[in-house]
Amino acid sequence: MPLLTKDFDYNLPPELIAARPLEDRAASRMLVVHRKEGKIEHRMFRDFPEYLGSGDLLVLNNTKVIPARLFSDDGKKELLCLDQLSALEWRCLVKPGKALRLGKTVTVAGITGTVTEVFENGDRLIRWDSLLDLNIHGHLALPHYMGREDEILDRERYQTVYAEEEGAIAAPTAGLHFTPEMLEKISHAFLTLHVGVGTFRPVSVEVVDDHIMHSERYVVSADTAQRVNAAGRVIAVGTTVTRVLEALGKPLLEQRGETDIFIHPPYQFRAIDGLLTNFHLPQSTLIMLVSAFAGKDLVMEAYRQAVAERYRFFSYGDCMLLI
Questions:
Q1: Residues 131 and 150 in one domain
Q2: Strand, coil or helix: 182
Q3: CB within 8 A of 216, min separation 6: which ones?
Q4: At what angle do helices 239-248 and 285-294 cross, to 10 degrees?
Q5: Domain identity same for 149 and 131
Q6: Domain C-terminal end among 86, 119, 137
Q7: 129-146, pLDDT tens digit by residue?
Q8: Using an 8 Å Cβ cutoff, are 152 and 158 in contact?
Q9: How far is CA 232 from CA 23, 52, 103, 238, in A?
Q10: CA-CA distance, 152 to 273, in Å (whole number)?
Q11: Residue ranges of the chain with pLDDT lower than 50?
């Protein structure tokens, strides 16, 4: 029997979706899944270091979210800047598409952009007549399930404390719980994967194997590669780190590239030994990845308990540790 997308569905009361962050990053709850024993614990994120040993290495994604969402001056068009191809050119996702056909223009903050190419998937290449500063004119592309527009607070909180390399559209949310003080006590290394527009695209096929995964850019430094290869256990912080490490395997080498790896059951993991992650949307590729790591039945039971125990879900929500 083929694996179906609906096999990864669960019922989530809307009030459990976290629309705003907690005041204290480290105050989240943490559901702990022991894969071999099939045991589930309910703890706090501040307890996280208790689950690490002396030879363990935490690997985090140091991508930095850019305010990539733009609105036209007439308020009728919305753009999501996906990739900067030159100083004046951006590949963008646009709404509504019919208003921005080839040759059409859009004005943002008095700066005019012209659609110079329409890609096969519907993205537009837009050339601006002068530099467009996203930090001044852009907005964070908060996930739709938050049900609100971005605010000043989000500029800091929808960003990890170790964010460094600009280029992500969405935050690697498993890392949002960490404070500098906690990281100082834990052996850790960084890689970079810029979280792309695929984060917002749901699985629309009935059979899991038919889904086409989006591609995302990564960078792995020589230092990180060396430390991962020497580690006792590798604990990935987030599905983005997992995708990079599993795509490259061991021994890990210094490199940069793109990956469109799609991890779902059944899958034999070859690079990570533990995973810290937030709770994910029903029927998403991310819940499929987590299910591949800990087993679908155990993961769906963990989600059932998380709902029953009133955990906070999604980007600004609580987290899950799978070991």
A1: no
A2: helix
A3: 193, 194, 195, 196, 198, 240, 243, 258, 259, 260
A4: 60
A5: no
A6: 137
A7: 999 999 999 999 999 999
A8: no
A9: 34, 11, 56, 19
A10: 37
A11: none
